[in-house]
Amino acid sequence: MIKIIIADDHYIIRDGLKAMLEKNDFCKIVGEAANGEELLELLKTTPCDVVCTDISMPVMDGVEATKQILKHFPKTKVMCLSMHEEAGFIKKMMEAGAVGYVFKDASKEELQTAIKAVHGGKKYFNQKLFDILLNMESGGKEVNILSAREKEILKLISEEYTNPEIAEKLFLSVRTVDTHRQNLIQKLDVKNTAGLVKYAIKSGLI
Amino acid sequence: MIKIIIADDHYIIRDGLKAMLEKNDFCKIVGEAANGEELLELLKTTPCDVVCTDISMPVMDGVEATKQILKHFPKTKVMCLSMHEEAGFIKKMMEAGAVGYVFKDASKEELQTAIKAVHGGKKYFNQKLFDILLNMESGGKEVNILSAREKEILKLISEEYTNPEIAEKLFLSVRTVDTHRQNLIQKLDVKNTAGLVKYAIKSGLI
DNA sequence: TCAAAATTACGTGTATTCACGTAGGCTCTT
DNA sequence: AAGAGCCTACGTGAATACACGTAATTTTGA
User: Fold this and answer.
1) Looking at chain A, which terminus has fewer C-beta neighbours within 10 angstroms, N or C?
2) Stronger pLDDT, B91 or A81, i.e. the higher one
3) How far apart are CA B64 and CA B148, in angstroms?
4) Is the pLDDT reported for residue B50 higher than 90?
5) How many C-alpha atoms does B164 have within 13 Å on its Cβ side?
6) Considering only CB atoms, which residues of chain B are within 8 Å of chain A?
């Protein structure tokens, strides 16, 4: 029996995965968490073989959680069950030490295959992943994870605040907020506010 | 046995719900669809008691699907399992004839209660719904469904095109695109591009 | 401890968005 | 036939966003 913990901020997804996986007898869900912090807390009391986590979660995202898990519980295998296909996140998750990656539109068979593979010490990556990584290579664009301040400002932009409003809220110069905004546009390789907001939503920031 | 069809554009949510609900013996999933069109096609060959649908789906959204279903299969009960809490959509779904409304963060117990209720001819609405509807009443804002042209332009805005670019694409004057943009901002009661993009994503337009 | 990154901020200029108004031609429904 | 809603378009002006640069201070991590 492979002991599994699921981390995702959507209750119904957790519950659905649980029901789906427990129809099999090769694994057992021993716990679930709604964010990275809960996940780490849970692991202290509940050892498990495989953690199946989303990337975008409030409080602590999957990347940071993965790093922490492998630091404190190195025998645990972390795999990613992601809702999006952002090349930067995939890379960050792999760098953090995730050994599996499955997309939301995968079949349950694929998910089960992936779980068995990572538990057996192998790596499992969705076929689509290779295409994305290939494109990333050719495109050559490095994706930087945003800093705390940048996230904060991106969040406010997505909440429909203007630069002057954000500046007032954070006790900053409008110029500073503008600089952050422009850095965000460059880092995320988008064209304007619309692109920023889409990224914020995709990445679970709002 | 209550015969259920699930409609949602996310495979893993469908599969999860299926596994979750089939642990009970009071209902059976007889089919699933990824959008409104698939749902209607499915109903032609597969009669069911309760349709459990998301609102935001590509091709045909939940509101239109609900109308069509109740037109062609009036005995079918339609309930909404929604990912968002947009007051306008809730109202539209109710006007379209949905008799149940459950949020994504509901428990499986609540979902089961809701299914039984609507099958028994009752209505079931999440408690949180009342709060939202109350606020809607006091706010008094009517939500207008967007016209085809407005949707088209909103889509392009969300794809990071500027007004001049959109004007060129659609062979329109920049002023016209600007007018549409402003009408969108007013209709959707948002402040700027960020709000428009959020709406576009929430409503499944992109 | 030294380099890299983050945070702060400014200068200058252009492009775009946003706000508020008006208005003709169009289709659809009553 | 008349009203409603949609699509089109313009005028004007202020506010905001976007582009490209520089740069000092602080924080962080190897």
Assistant:
1) N
2) A81
3) 14
4) yes
5) 0
6) 10-13, 15-20, 22-23, 81, 104-108, 157-160, 162, 190-198, 201, 206
pLDDT at B148: 83
Which nucleotide, over all strands, has the C1' atom closest to the CA of A148?
A: C6
Please state, as a whole number, how many other Cβ atoms lie within 10 Å of the Cβ of residue B6.
25
Cα–Cα distances (Å) from B16 to B23, B103, B150, in that order, read 11, 15, 35
Range name among A77-81, A83-87, B109-113, B121-125 with the lowest pLDDT average: A83-87
Residue of A nearest to B81 (CA): A12
Å between B95 CA and nearest CA of chain A: 26
Residue B1 pLDDT > 60, yes or no? yes
What is the rounded CA–CA span in Å between residue A110 and residue A120?
A: 15
DSSP-derived secondary structure letter, A1 = -
What is the average pLDDT across A129-149? 56
Q: Give me the sheet containing A50-53, strands edge to edge.
A: A27-33, A2-7, A50-53, A77-82, A100-103, A124-125
8 Å CB contact of A16 and B15: yes
Please report the pLDDT score of residue B139 as a whole number. 35
Mean pLDDT confidence for B5-34: 87
| Angstrom distances, CA of residue B108 to CA of A38, A108, B21, B105 | 21, 20, 8, 9
For chain B, the C-alpha Rg in angstroms (whole number) is 18
CB B80 within 8 A of CB B53: yes
A–B: how many Cβ contacts below 8 A? 94
CA atoms within 13 A on the CB side of A57: 30
Confidence of residue B87 (pLDDT cuts 50, 70, 90): low
Distance CA B109, CA B115 (A): 10
Q: Are A91 and A132 in contact (CB under 8 A)?
A: no
Integer Cα distance of A143 and A202 in angstroms = 15
Nearest to B205 by CA among B60, B52, B82, B93: B60
